[in-house]
């Protein structure tokens, strides 16, 4: 599980731990990752979680992760690539393209490369019949702030999901993406959103509330379960009705 030290990834790791699955927790900041592992261990008796500090946008992380996952000597049935970040906006309207390029590079590095490195690095270890889950966003459909790098990076994952599903289908491996709307209680927005923006996002939902990390965790767990085994090559929008699915 990449991006496991906060928000959606941490809740998802906990959901798997509750099912007695061993979970490798991956993120860059050691202290926060260790804290997340402790939290899961204290709330789930017997939880088998292993923190691993890695920047998943670095190519070298693939081999390190493969070695660590291989050393666990357990079947690797699920790979959830939740690492992601919203880059600083690069729009300045003065004709200087530097900030825009930085925004797009950072958006792709954090949201696309982190998934590509994890998936391509771990594929040799994945069991036939396993599941890959990537994390998109409602921004892939609606656009995002700045010059739109974040939304574009998330949309790129949709194409990657379809490619993976076709490529790995013969091995019975499913590949799907979850595209959440606004999910509260995460660190994605640097703590909290301005109150007016949060109110507006909640008003857009049909259910009248923000998503919770546990809502997204439940769907990730389902996609990796036997019950979700025939679901592949899908982008699952999970947004409380903020936008109408097609
Ligand atoms: N919250 C929302 O409203 C929302 C909506 C739509 C989509 N999403 C997507 O859902 C996913 C989880 O978001 P969240 O809200 O739970 O965010 P979050 O609370 O900020 O957690 C992001 C996680 O990713 C890790 N991470 C970031 N870059 C990484 C890298 N290069 N290598 C390894 N780990 C990295 C972070 O830890 P370190 O910083 O320590 O590495 C952290 O564990 C993201 O992909 C996000 O884009 C979230």
From TrEMBL:
<dbReference type="InterPro" id="IPR057326">
    <property type="entry name" value="KR_dom"/>
</dbReference>
<keyword id="KW-0560">Oxidoreductase</keyword>
<dbReference type="InterPro" id="IPR036291">
    <property type="entry name" value="NAD(P)-bd_dom_sf"/>
</dbReference>
<dbReference type="Pfam" id="PF13561">
    <property type="entry name" value="adh_short_C2"/>
</dbReference>
<comment type="similarity">
    <text>Belongs to the short-chain dehydrogenases/reductases (SDR) family.</text>
</comment>
<dbReference type="InterPro" id="IPR002347">
    <property type="entry name" value="SDR_fam"/>
</dbReference>
<protein>
    <submittedName>
        <fullName>SDR family oxidoreductase</fullName>
    </submittedName>
</protein>
<feature type="domain" description="Ketoreductase">
    <location>
        <begin position="2"/>
        <end position="186"/>
    </location>
</feature>
<dbReference type="GO" id="GO:0016616">
    <property type="term" value="F:oxidoreductase activity, acting on the CH-OH group of donors, NAD or NADP as acceptor"/>
</dbReference>
<dbReference type="InterPro" id="IPR020904">
    <property type="entry name" value="Sc_DH/Rdtase_CS"/>
</dbReference>
